[in-house]
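Hey everyone, long-time lurker, first post.

I ran two proteins through the pipeline my lab uses and got sequence/structure pairs for each. Pasting them in order. The first:
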Amino acid sequence: MIFLIIIAASLLLLMFYMYKEANENNVKLHTIHAKGNNEQLSIFFISDVHLRKINRKMVQSIDKQIHAVIIGGDFADSRTSLERIKNNIELLQSLAPVYFVWGNNDREVGEKQLRQLFEEMGVKIVENDAFQLQQRKNPIWISAIDDTSVQNYSFERALAKCEGDDLIIFISHNPQVLQKVPTIKKPILMLGGHLHGGQIRFGKFGIHPHGSFTVRQGVPTLISNGYGTTLVPFRLGAKPECHIIDIIISGNESTVQ
């Protein structure tokens, strides 16, 4: 009997710990260097919010100018109310203009009403297309494909507007297809989410790789653990995260820190 009580208490403590970890607010800072006319900009990247309410104090604690907010997909799912989506967007818009990329769960909300809401709020949906950041010294594009689950994604269309030495920030919710991008045009940065870092890991073991910020095929590549959770509101060994990427553009070659 005592053994069963110990087991039950241990499981409850573990569940409490995983719930607590899932609700942390971690902002990771990264720096990349790219070649071009001298200027600097900062991008805020968040993915896989799902049902979670974005923490206001976390956003308000950001003490630097952000030039663009990129939502890397799964901003919502079937559980998420339009009111929650609207409130989360308004909070992100307090930082900078918002660019949205489709994930595999977003359309569960209802694609038509989600598009209408984003249009009303001035959110730019980037799907097999690219938007150029305005008032920059360099031609800088935010380019993305539609989610790979809809079989309508096109790298060629997403990159068609980008020319020559243009600087490209490329996003795919599913990072497992990013390796194709540098074979068409080489971005200065690639961003993905979707995998949640495995969400629940035991040491180095998880159903998906842990999130990372590395150089792949010569391109700085960020794969985020994401901010929210799917299925169960628990995390273990794959802390929630969002990101600020400082992009320093000068005459030097691209590097990552």
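...and the second, right after it:
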Amino acid sequence: MKNALLAGLAVATLLLAAAVYVSQGKQTPDFNLARLTADEKIALRGEIRAYLLDNPEVIFEAVDIAESRQAEAQAQQDVTMVQVNAAAIFDDGYSWIGGNPEGDITLVEFVDYRCGYCRRAHDDVAQLVKSDGNIKLIMKEFPILGEDSMRSSQFAIAVKQLAGDASYKAAHDALITMRTSANEVSLSRLATTLGLDAEQVLAHMNSEEVRTEIANTRALAQRLQITGTPTFVMQDELLRGYVPLQAMQQLVAQKRG
């Protein structure tokens, strides 16, 4: 917001400076602040200050324009980044795939099990996928909130690699609602609850295969400039942060045209 405000102020200042010079009958094509004399600069500052005091809404208009342009530039940059990294996003060969694998809309989520907004989004995403019936969901393990986050993702990936997609989904749903610390005791208990060999799962958590998957996802997130969770990719668009169910449904409808 600060950068946008400064940009807006700069734009407003230059526009006002040009307006002042026009009102004084001077030519704007060659307008250059560096060429003004000391007295002209003082006069110009006075004109600008007086105008802004009389018309403070100009600043907010300039800020709105600057922020809008910045958002448009970011959106276009996101589209380009998604296109360049499409294979790693949509077809990495290891990320869990749910929903309708043949769906016409693909939704990718970068998730951290200890993220409050990820937990909030969990039910919304599940409801979206279930009610729509034509959405392919891809889950990316992206632990960024400490050791509990890392252990949770390691556990989920180990379960997927050892026991398959159905067991991963059960582990994922349990981890996203887990309130206790993700330690050896709680994870061993969860593995047993899922009908798995707890000792085998815990041993596999620190395997090269699990570490590689997490490292690959982190590298992808870095290329996409993802720094927080949840972050979604819907078709060619990056959605940074929590998106409520209704907004998700509207975006799906827009993607379908």
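Reply from user beta_strand_b:
Welcome! Quick read of the second one: The radius of gyration is 26 Å. The chain has two domains: 2-84, 87-256.
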